[in-house]
Fold:
Amino acid sequence: MCAVIFLGAPATALATNHHRHRHSHGRAACSHVRHSPRHTSSRGCVAGLRRASAGTARRRHHETARPSAAAQRAAQRAAVIARSLATPCENTQLTPEPANLDAARAAVLCLINHQRAQNGELPLAVDSRLQSAAESHDEELLSANYFAHVAPSGVTPVDRIRSTGYIPGPEFGYLIGENLAWGTLSLSTPQSIVEAWMASPEHRANILESRYLDTGIAVVPAVPSSLSGGARGATYAQEFGTIVP
Structure:
């Protein structure tokens, strides 16, 4: 029997209730006007002029300090990425079984963060709510014998993640993604799954998305019965997320 691997088309959802505006810095002293669906405000023009004339020395000081602060942030980012690259990934060749699922999940996270670090991106941190969403979806794929982002009942990745409380409320924006995969025999290992995701442009885009901060990973040591052909294997789900205040 041949080992097989299959990827679910990645899911990504972007939603925001925040209005972004570009402010033009022209010659007019009162060019900063905030707009919202309910009101327009131009408060602070005169006060702004006074602060500008009285605080010239302070502004020059901050302008001089900015490159140093930016350099410090860049150095901190580089150090975090370097630590991620220097962390060895263990258990990447595990065949998932009930007794080693924690190790398999840790291997996936390490491999994912290595890929991000190699591309200049910060590592993802495990969020317990995204973890819960990934685990519930992975278990449902087995129990309901399907393989898709949207459940037969119509529940979407955003619905599952929202039910965990990860999205604080309707006033918050969010970016949500999900990668799925299943594999049998030798192709059910964390290494094989992450390599397959990275070889798929859409899944790779989720893994390397710079705006993602959080993740949750689930591994189930089985494949939906309609797909496995009776072979041993594993089903993987990874949730990605970030909240926009």
Helices lie at 45-54, 56-86, 101-118, 128-143, 157-163, 190-199, 201-208, 225-228. Residues 184 and 231 are 6 Å apart (CA to CA). Strands lie at 5-15, 34-35, 40-41, 125-126, 173-184, 214-220, 233-244.
